[in-house]
Amino acid sequence: MDQNTNARTGERYQRGWEKLKEVDGEAGEKIIASLADIAPDFARYLIEFPFGDIYSRPQLDLQSREIAVVAALTAMGNATPQLKVHIQAALNVGCTREEVTEVIMQMAVYAGFPAALNGLFAAKEVFAALDTTTAAAC
Predict the structure, then answer these.
(1) pLDDT digits over 88-130, tens only?
(2) CB atoms < 10 A from the CB of 59, how many?
(3) Per-residue model confidence as pLDDT tens digits over 3-17
(4) What domains, with CATH codes, occur in the chain?
(5) Is the CA virtual torsion 138, 129, 69, 26 positive or negative?
(6) Cα pseudo-dihedral 117, 122, 123, 129, rounded to 10
(7) What is the distance between the terminal CA atoms of the chain, rounded to a whole angstrom?
(8) Least-confidence region, from 21-30, 54-63, 103-112
(9) 3-class secondary structure, 56
């Protein structure tokens, strides 16, 4: 790689890392760390492209982006671990539980009741874990 490419990659990585921490907090950092021994390049790709290039664009705020991701992952119906991370991320960036629940319910129209049910159960687990953590902190 030439110096310009290294500089751009370094900027993308740094911008992506900061955005990942803003959106996902510790959960995102844990996902990246869990890839270190099997696919460190993939971890870098996750930081640079989705978070360094896409999430960092100014055209949508983070709440809108996370609502879109929750909707997409719910509709996919086969990405429950990632859906849970992004439900938490949606809450981290200011979405309410009611907004998350409503967007998942909306997916019943386009992805079917099974996908929406799975999404709602994922949200229920995330909300319960948050309630448990909050109760333990008090």
Answers:
(1) 999 999 999 999 999 999 999 999 999 999 999 999 999 999 9
(2) 6
(3) 445 555 699 999 999
(4) 1-58 (no CATH), 60-138 (1.20.1290.10)
(5) positive
(6) 150
(7) 52
(8) 21-30
(9) coil
